[in-house]
């Protein structure tokens, strides 16, 4: 008899390049490890506010380190993340609430597109940085890039301001906080009756060890 699959929840926000790294690694390993990977799009700004955390790039020395670190990790994990000092300020000023509401609408109605749409947002945020900023985050354009029809994308865009979508994103963000999250990515493994929280994209070997992979 096969062992029961371990539920692994990934709380992420496309504003976070480290979330992208963790997302891609877990996407690869979901087919190798005995896990059920559940994507939980949440709002990093809400987690930061609730826990008193601040974006790491706000500390100049840490921002310097992050630029090098993300570049190294992108190369190691073969994720096409490109990042400059300007990107931090641009992304922080834009925020990701609209993008995460759009992704939440996808999760609620077209979950089969959740992975490609999330990836397409990350590509826009953290890879195709030379594109015009106004076009950069346009959800319709991102959705089409991920394979949705114009009609499907428009329906999703119409949902973004609905109470159902806003409440779902708020609830998912609150779930992450209840598990102890203070930043992203936050990975929660449900194993042997316990919940194990891992923060960051560099704790996945530890996750594997805890769940017996």
From TrEMBL:
GO terms for biological process: glutathione metabolic process. Its EC number is 2.5.1.18. One of its GO terms (cellular component) is mitochondrion. It comes from the Eukaryota. It catalyses: RX + glutathione = an S-substituted glutathione + a halide anion + H(+). Signal peptide: none annotated. Keywords: Transferase. Residues 8-211 form the DSBA-like thioredoxin domain. The active site is at 16 (nucleophile). GO terms for molecular function: glutathione peroxidase activity; glutathione transferase activity. It is an enzyme of class 2 (transferase). InterPro entries: DSBA-like_thioredoxin_dom, GST_Kappa/NadH, GSTK, HCCAis_GSTk, Thioredoxin-like_sf. Belongs to the GST superfamily. Kappa family. This is Glutathione S-transferase kappa 1. It comes from Casuarius casuarius (Southern cassowary).
């Amino acid at each position: 008899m096969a062992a029961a699959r371990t539920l692994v929840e990934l709380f992420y926000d496309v504003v976070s390049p480290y979330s992208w790294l963790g997302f891609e690694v877990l996407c690869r390993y979901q087919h190798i490890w005995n896990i059920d990977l559940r994507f939980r799009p949440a709002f990093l700004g809400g987690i930061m506010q609730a826990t008193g955390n601040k974006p790491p790039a706000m500390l100049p020395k840490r921002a310097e380190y992050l630029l090098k670190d993300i570049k190294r990790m992108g190369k190691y994990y073969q994720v096409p993340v490109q990042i400059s000092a300007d990107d931090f300020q641009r992304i922080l000023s834009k925020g990701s609430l609209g993008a995460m509401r759009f992704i939440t609408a996808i999760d609620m109605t077209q979950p089969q597109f959740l992975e490609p749409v999330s990836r397409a947002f990350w590509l826009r945020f953290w890879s195709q940085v030379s594109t015009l900023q106004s076009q950069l985050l346009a959800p319709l354009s991102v959705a089409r890039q991920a394979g949705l029809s114009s009609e499907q994308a428009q329906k999703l865009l119409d949902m973004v301001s609905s109470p159902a979508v806003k409440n779902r994103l708020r609830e998912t963000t609150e779930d992450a906080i209840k598990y102890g999250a203070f930043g992203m990515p936050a990975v929660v493994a449900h194993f042997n009756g316990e919940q194990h929280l891992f923060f960051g994209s560099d704790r996945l070997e530890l996750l594997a060890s805890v769940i017996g992979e």
